[in-house]
Specification:
TIM Barrel; eight-stranded mixed β-sheet; 318 residues; alpha/beta
């Protein structure tokens, strides 16, 4: 398939897409998860065996010590299910690195997770929590029966610790669409989340982040089964917004996979496409200068990040 995104970028830049710096180092701690979400781009599930070993974590920590990124972003799967999760968090926070965790919330109620919210709060870890909607029906359709109730319970426990308050660590929520359409205006949707969650459950949070469903993983397979794949790709291409290019996450971060391979972003990780164009693609050969200023590997899936208001791990871009 032709890389139409690369062609569009070349029309604007005269060449390709290049990174600016490394503000965020993201570690994918594995594909094991307690859920099987319909929109998951990495196909995470309880059956996935891929888990980042401690040896890879140690090398990643060395790189983080050298690069001193503004944020260390831990993701998965459910990163909390990595057996060395607490050890890694303690190591990073002990060195003064700002850490945030991408949590599905329900994992905090799993057996063996007693005390984890307190541990995260004690270490000042910020949370980015998936909550695809404030309505039970929409959450259930994406994440399965019982997920809504468990998410609300987890949020209440986090609030009780101080998460989401002005004095406590950040508790950001993540919205993603329930179908083949783009996220609405993040600034306009956030008041709805605040009102509904507070009135129904007394829940508070820091910020709402909106993220588009990428044409990857289970979401893409469902689109193909329903023969909506071409229509969705046309929607993403037609909604291309050049004003999103400066803020694209691939221009300001790298993603390190569970096996130590280096990617431009978590979406390229899902596709198994590591960094290229001369940049080292594994942390064994990591070179900060080469990775910080590199040409980014793109594909047609990148239209998902540049459509409409834009989409990134930090929410809307414009």
């Amino acid at each position: 398939m032709d890389n139409l995104f690369e062609e569009r970028i070349a029309e604007i830049t005269g060449s390709g897409l290049f990174s600016d710096d490394i503000e965020v180092i993201q570690l994918n701690l594995g594909l094991r998860c307690n859920q099987v979400c319909a929109h998951c781009h990495v196909d995470a599930s309880p059956e996935r065996p891929e888990v980042m070993p401690w040896a890879i974590m140690e090398r990643a920590c060395q790189i983080i010590d050298e690069m001193r990124p503004a944020t260390v972003d831990l993701t998965g799967g459910a990163p909390e299910l990595n057996p060395n999760f607490n050890r890694l968090v303690s190591r990073l926070c002990g060195k003064g690195h700002p850490v945030q965790i991408r949590t599905n919330l329900t994992v905090l109620l799993e057996a063996g997770m007693t005390g984890l919210p307190e541990f995260l709060h004690e270490h000042g870890v910020e949370l980015v929590a998936s909550l695809p909607c404030y309505l039970e029906e929409n959450v259930r359709s994406q994440r399965g029966p019982g997920s809504y109730e468990k998410s609300m319970e987890a949020l209440r426990r986090l609030n009780a610790l101080g998460y989401g308050s002005e004095a406590g660590p950040a508790l950001n929520l993540v919205y993603n669409p329930g179908g083949a359409f783009l996220p609405p205006d993040q600034a306009k949707l956030e008041p709805d989340y605040r009102r509904e969650l507070h009135e129904r459950f007394g829940i508070r949070f820091t910020r709402l982040l909106t993220i588009a469903n990428m044409p990857l993983g289970r979401f893409w397979e469902e689109l193909r089964r329903s023969r909506e794949d071409r229509k969705y790709m046309a929607l993403l291409r037609d909604a291309f917004n050049p004003n999103t290019l400066q803020g694209l996450m691939c221009r300001h971060q790298i993603s390190i996979g569970w096996d130590g391979r280096v990617y431009d972003c978590d979406f390229n990780l899902a596709l198994g496409i590591p960094v290229d164009h001369g940049a080292p693609n594994h942390i064994r050969q990591f070179a900060g200068d080469a990775v910080a200023k590199r040409r980014i590997v793109t594909g047609n899936h990148c239209f998902g990040c540049t459509a409409g208001f834009g989409s990134s791990c930090r929410g809307a871009l414009v």
